Amino acid sequence: MTTYFPVFLELSGRAVLIVGGGPVAWEKVESLKSTGAEITILSPTISLQIQGEVDAGRLVWIEKAFEPADVIPYFMIVAATDDPATNAEVFQTGNALNRLTNSVDDPENCNFIMSAIVRQGPMQVAVSSSGCSPALAQQIRNRISDDLLTPEVGRLGEFLGQWRPAVKSSLGSYKHRQGFWARVLASDVPALLNINETEAGEAMTRGLRWAEEHPECLLCGRHELGFDCGETT
Questions:
Q1: Architecture of the 15-114 domain
Q2: CA dist 139 to 7, 99, 124, 148, 189, Å?
Q3: CA angle at 125 for the pair 119 and 130, rounded to the nearest 5°
Q4: Mean pLDDT over all residues of the chain?
Q5: What is the pTM of this model?
Q6: How many angstroms separate the most distant Cα atoms in the chain?
Q7: Structure confidence at residue 209 (pLDDT)
Q8: Which residues form the Siroheme synthase central domain (predicted)?
Q9: How many angstroms separate the CA atoms of 20 and 95, rounded?
């Protein structure tokens, strides 16, 4: 079995080609359109959903059958037709040019696979079965969505992201920043954010001031104490 290395790609402004115009192609459009990728559909015909995106100017449609030269301008290629032979040809062509190329539901004709993804704000979790069982990956993804990656977690991610520049400016060492963030998550900040964002911000300000005054506590490993170090209070 192939062992895959998970990565998150920055696709904003990148040219992505989806070969196919039916429901499978639409599924890939839906998973990619939030990335800011410049998506082109290559197919003699397209579904009503894809047509709506084309009419709105969110997709480009090239109305033709696939030819090998079609892949040249693209960073990523997804083969999503209902013809396995065409999908295999798309992969072989893209792979020979060192393009990221995926043939839907055909791991042998992929140099990358798409994961089952759940997103809340800036937080996202991708689950993969390495192509063995997409249905199982989807089931695990749904459990994460229901029980772990809640809207509150997404909001916390956005809030902490707003504080990253200030923390980086105040705490010069990566290890100190790592210790600080561990203590933030063990403190009352997450709970306060669900009640009052202003109070959560005030707690962050106090915590950052404490961290500047007690940098040694950020390295002691007792992060469960939050903004405290027991003997230093």
A1: 3-Layer(aba) Sandwich (3.40)
A2: 21, 30, 16, 14, 31
A3: 130
A4: 93
A5: 0.80
A6: 72
A7: 95
A8: 120-145
A9: 18
The SS3 assignment for 77 reads strand
Tokens of 200: 């959560």
- Does residue 165 contact residue 204 with C-beta atoms inside 8 Å? no
Question: CA quadruple 25, 28, 34, 38: dihedral positive or negative?
Answer: negative
Taking only the tens place, the pLDDT of each residue in 109-158 is 999 999 889 999 999 999 998 888 889 999 999 999 999 999 999 999 99
Backbone angles phi, psi at 210, to 5 degrees: -60, -40
For residues 203-227, give the mean pLDDT: 88
Question: What are the extents of the domains in the chain?
Answer: 15-114, 115-149, 151-225
181: three-class secondary structure by DSSP? helix
Q: How far apart are alpha carbons 210 and 226 in whole angstroms?
A: 11
Task: Check: CB of residue 226 under 8 Å from CB of residue 187.
Answer: yes
